[in-house]
Amino acid sequence: MLKIEGLTAEIDGKQILKGLDLEVPAGEVHAIMGPNGAGKSTLSYVLSGREGYEITGGSVTFHGKDLLAMEPEERAASGLFLAFQYPVELPGVGNATFLRTALNAIRRQRGEPELDAMQFLKLARSRMKELSMPEDMLKRGVNVGFSGGEKKRNEVLQMALLNPSLAILDETDSGLDIDALKIVSEGVNALRGPGFSALVITHYQRLLNYIVPDRVHVLVNGRIAKSGGKELALELEAHGYAEVAA
Amino acid sequence: MNAMTSNAEAFLRRAEALATPAWVGALRRQGVEALARSGLPNRRVEAYRYTDLTPVARAEFGAAPKALARPELPAQRGRARMVFVDGVLRADLSTLPPRPLSDAAPLLGTVENSATAPVAALNAALAEDGMFLDIPAGENAGLIELVSIVTEGAGPIAFHPRHVVRLGEGASVTILETCEGPDGVGYLHNPVFEVVVAEGATCAHTRIQREGQGAYFLSSIHARIAAGGTYDNFTLNAGAKLARNEIHSALEGPKAACHMNGAQLVGQGQLADTTTFLHHAAPDCASRQTYKSVLTGNGRGVFQGKILVAQVAQRTDGYQMNQALLLSEDAEMDAKPQLEIYADDVKCSHGATIGALDENQLFYLRSRGIPEKAARAMLVQAFLTEAVDGVADETCRAALDEAVMGWWQGVAA
Amino acid sequence: MPAVTETIETVQSVAEGGYKWGFETDIEMEFAPKGLNEDIVRFISKKKNEPGWLLEWRLKAFAIWQKMEEPDWAAVNYPRIDYQDAYYYAAPVQKAKPKSLDEVDPELLKTYAKLGIPLKEQAILAGVEGAGESPSDAAEGGRMPIAIDAVFDSVSVATTFKDRLEKEGIIFCAISEAVQNHPELVRQYLGSVVPQADNFFAALNCAVFTDGSFVYIPKGVKCPMELSTYFRINAKSTGQFERTLIIADEGSTVSYLEGCTAPMRDENQLHAAVVELVALDDASIKYSTVQNWYPGDAEGKGGIYNFVTKRAACRGKRSKVSWTQVETGSAITWKYPSCILQGDDSVGEFYSVAITNNRQQADTGTKMFHIGKNTRSTIISKGISAGFGQNTYRGLVRIGAKATGARNFTQCDSLLIGDQCGAHTVPYIENRCISAKVEHEATTSRIAEDQLFYCRQRGLSEEEAVGLIVNGFCREVLKELPMEFAVEAQKLLQISLEGSVG
Fold this sequence. Notes:
Chain A is α/β, with parallel strands linked by helices.
C-alpha cells in the first residue's frame, strides 16, 4: 500500500530525512519510534504534502501511484489521513461545515455521491457517540477553545468519517490522559481491517499497549535504524534509543 | 465667498447655480463655506493621509439625464422601500410613502460634523433631496429598504442625497441600504445620513455598497444616540474605484450603545477607506467595532478609527478590532486606530492585524481533502464571519452573504 | 548592589518633596552671547576647534532650519519658544583636564555627589585619571564597572575607563574629541541616520550641537562594560543640544545607558538632542534611557522641553537595536526612538514607560521601518497618566513591499490615575507585503478598586499600593533595563507619582 524508497528531504537547507526506506502493506499497523529531531514529524508532513519541505531524492508510492506528485487534497482523496500532532484552530469555520465539506470533497473525488445535511448529521452523530464527544462540538469553530484531549478526539472523529486507507498518527498520544488515550485508541482499532493501514508515530511505548502494532521501526537521524516486531518497543523503553539503535 | 481658491471650485459653482429653497438654505451655506475652506483634501491633511480626494475634485461630472429611466428592480425584501434612480427620488417606484425632506429642516446639519467635515460639506452644499424616515415613539417600523441605482445610460453624474432618520422614544427600525451602478462610469454618489436616536430607540442599519468599478463613493453617516438608545451599522463595501465610508457616532446619554461593523472587499484598481469616529460623551456607554478587509489585486484598504472618551464618560466600555487579509503581492493595507481618552474609569482597547492567509490552516483543510480554491474561500468566509455575525436581521444577513459570495466568485473567476 | 542602594539613599536624602535633583551648582561658566544666528554657529564651531567641513555642515543645517516651521502635530501644548532668548553655548570654566581630585572644581564634585553617582565613580566622573581603572577596583562590590561620559551643560567634562576600553579598540569619548581624533569616522557617519533636514529640532541640533558622546565598537568586540552618559543642564536660560553617535561594527555588541537631570527653575529650558545609532552585520546595540529632566512644578511652571530625535540604522544583516526608555521627567516630551531595518533578518525593539503627572505632557513612541527581508520588530509601550498629565503614544510600523517575512508585534497599554488626565494612542500601521504579519494591541484602563483594596488590606499604604501596581504594569519594560538601572527606575516611578493618589 505504502512504499518509501531512499527518501531524502530537507527544510531550510537542512537535511532531515537521509535515505529512508519503509513499506507498509495493506491491513498492517506500523509504529515509528525515535528520539526528538530524528525526523518523525518531517516524515508525516512530507507524506501528507506540506509546503516548505524539499524532497531531494527517493520515491513514495501509495496504492501504486506517485504520492509525491499529488496535491495535499489529492492525497487525502486517495485515502491518506494525517492526525496532526497540533491540530490547527480555524476560528469562524464551524466544525460541522468543515467536516461535511471535507467528507463531500473526498467523496466527490472518489466518485461517490455527496451527503446532504441530514445524512451527514446522522453519520456524524453516531461517530461522535462512539468517541464520547458532546454534540455541541459540531457547532463550535474547528478546534477553537477545544482542550488538548478534545482536539485529538476531533482528529479521530475526522478519521472515522473520512474513512482512510492509511492513517498517519503523529504523536496522537501527546497530552492525553489515560481515558482519552483509550477512547482514541478504540477509535483507531475500530477501523482496523484488511483495507486499513496505519503509521503510528510516537515517543512512548504506552500508546502501543492500546494500538498493538504489527511492526515497529526505529527512526534515528533520518533513517530507519532498526525494525522488528512489537517486542522491539518494549526493548526501546527498557534500554533507550542509543543502545538499541547502535 | 473666497470659493474660487478651493479645489472644489466646480462643485461650488454648481451649488451657486442651484435653486435654494428656505428649508435647505442654512445647510447649504454651512456646506459651501466649509467646502470653500477645506476643498477636497489631499494626503497632507491628517484625516486623509491614506486617501486622496483630489481625483474627485479633478473629475468632471454631468447633470442627471432629464428622461426618467425605468431600471429593473430587484424583488422587494422589506416591508416598504424607497428607490432612488440616478440620484432622483422615485415615488413611482417606491412603496414607502415619501415624506418631503423639507419636513426635516430643523434637523438638517445638526448632528456633529454633518455639515462641515469635507465629505459631509460636499453633500451639504449640493443636497437637494433624500429620504426622511420619521418613526414615532414606541413604533416598530420593521425593515425599510433604501435602494440607489445608477442606470447604464446615466453617464458620469454626481448626486448628493441627504437622508434623515429620526426615531422617537423606544421606536425601532431596520434599514437595508443597497447602492449599485454600472462599471466603467466615473459617477459620484455622495450620500449623507443624519440619524437621531431618541431614548431607548434602536436603529439597525445595513449597507451593501456595490457601486460600479469606475465610481466614486463618498459617504458620511452621522448618528446621535440618546440614553439607552442603540445605533448599529454594518457596511459591506465591495464596489467603486474610490470609496470613503465615514461614520461619526456620538453616544450622548447614559447606557447608549453603538456597534459599528463592516467588511471591505477590495480588488484591482480599488481603494476602500473606512473612517470611524466614536465620541463617548456620556457615562456607562458601550461601543463595539469590528472591521475586516480582504484585499486582492493591487487593491488598497484603509481603516482609521478613533474612539474619543470625554471626561464625563466614566465607565465607558469601548472595543475596536480591525483585521486585514492580504491575498496578493500588490495589495496594501494602512491602518490607524486611535484612542483619545480623558476619563479614568474606562475600559478601552483596540487591536489590529494585517497578514496573509494562515498557511497552517490552509494545509489542514487541504489535508482533509478540501481543494485549495475551496479551502481559501472557506478561510476568507470564516475571516469575515466575525464581523457579519453582528447582523441580527435575517433578511439583511442573507443579502450580505449573497453579496460576499458574489464578490468572491468574481475574484476567484 | 551598593551602587543602587547608595543612589536610592542619595535620592531620598536630598528629597525635599517633589523633584529631588532640582538643585543648582554655583560654578564659573562661560557663555556665548544670547540668541541664534550664523555668528553663534561659527562661535561654537571655533570654540570646538572644528575642521572646515563640519562648520560648513553646521551652516547648511542652520540655513535649512531657518526655512523650517516648528511642528504642531504632536498632542502637546506650550507657548511659542523664542529661539533668540536663549544661550546656545554654556560651559564650566576649566583650564586643563584635571590630574587629581583636588584640581576638579569642588562644586562640580558636590553636584555628582548630590546626583547620587557612587563615590568611586564620582572621582572618575570628575575626570581624575587613573582612579578605578583596574579590573579589581571595578569588580569591587560585585558589580560591573560602568564607563561614564558626563556632559555638564554644553560640554563633556569627563569620560572614564577610556584606557581600559582603548585596549579593546573601543572608542568612547566626547563627540568633540572624536571630531579631533577620529574625523574619518565622524565624517562618515554623522548625519547619516538623522540628516540635517530631518525635522525642525534635528536641524537646530545640527547647527548648534555642542557635545555628546561618541562610541565606536570595532569588529567582533563585545564591549566589556556598560557605557553611560550623564547629562546635566545647570545654567540658566540655556538650551542643551547634545549629539550622540554610536557605531557598532560587524559582530560587535554594546550596551549604553543615558541619564539626565536639571535644576528646578521657573523658566522653561529647551533640550533638543540627536542620537544616531549604526549597527552593521551581526552587531547589536542596546540603548537605555532614564529621562528625568525637571518636569516643572505642580502648577506647570518651569520644566524642560525635551524635543529629541533618536534613530537607529540596522544596516547590517542580523543586526539588532533595542531602545528602552523610562520617561519620568520634562514638562514636554517629544521623542520617537526609531529603527530603520535595512539589513535582512535585522531586529528592532522599543520598550517604553512614560509617566506624566501634574501638568506634564508626553508625546512619545517609535517608528519601525521594515525594508529588509525577515525583519522583526517589537514595540511595548506603557503610558501612565496622573494629575493633569497628558500622555500620547504615537507610533509607525511601515512594511515595505520587499520586506518579505517581516513581523511586527505592538502592545500599547495606558493606565489612568485620577479623572483629570488623558491617555491617547495613535498608531500608524502600513503594510505593503503579503507575507508580512503585523499585530497591534492597545488597552486603556485604570487601577482596579479591588486591586488597591487587596493591597491595602495586606497593610500597604495607598501610595505604596499604587507604586506596586504601576511597577507591575511596567514590568515588561523594566526587565529590559540593565539591572542597576531597573531598580533605580522602579524607585523613580514611585517618586514621580507622588501626590497623584487621594
